[in-house]
């Protein structure tokens, strides 16, 4: 609760609450945006993304993955 309160008091922090985790980022981005941006910078044929997630904070990555390959 103390960490959540501290982070909430800073305009540059972004709080994502998961099942058993409090994720605090100091920039406004998601794991999914990071992976998507990286995938756009490389040849898709040279990259395979393997991601294992077990929390709601991982859903942004899972929504960017192409399951057809």
> Could you name the ranges where pLDDT drops below 50 across 5 or more consecutive residues?
none
Oligomer: single chain
Succession of helices and strands:
HEEHH
Distance between the termini: 42 Å
Quickly give the structural class.
alpha+beta
**Spatial order of the strands forming the largest sheet:** 1-2
What proportion of the residues form beta strands (DSSP E)? 5-15%
Helix content: 25-40%
- State Rg: 15 Å
Give the number of helices.
3
Report the sheet with the most strands, covering strand number, pairing sense and barrel closure: 2 strands, antiparallel
Query: What is the number of E strands?
Result: 2
**Average pLDDT score:** 83
* Cα shape: elongated
Secondary structure blueprint with pairings:
Layout: H1 2-8, E1 14-17, E2 22-25, H2 31-41, H3 59-62
Antiparallel strand pairs: 1-2
From the structure above, extract its key features.
single chain, 69 residues, alpha+beta, two-stranded antiparallel sheet, 32% helix
Textual characterization of the structure:
- The chain is of the alpha+beta class and 69 residues long.
- It has 3 helices and 2 strands.
- A hairpin with a 4-residue loop joins strand 1 and strand 2.
Quick structural summary:
By secondary structure, the chain is an alpha+beta fold.
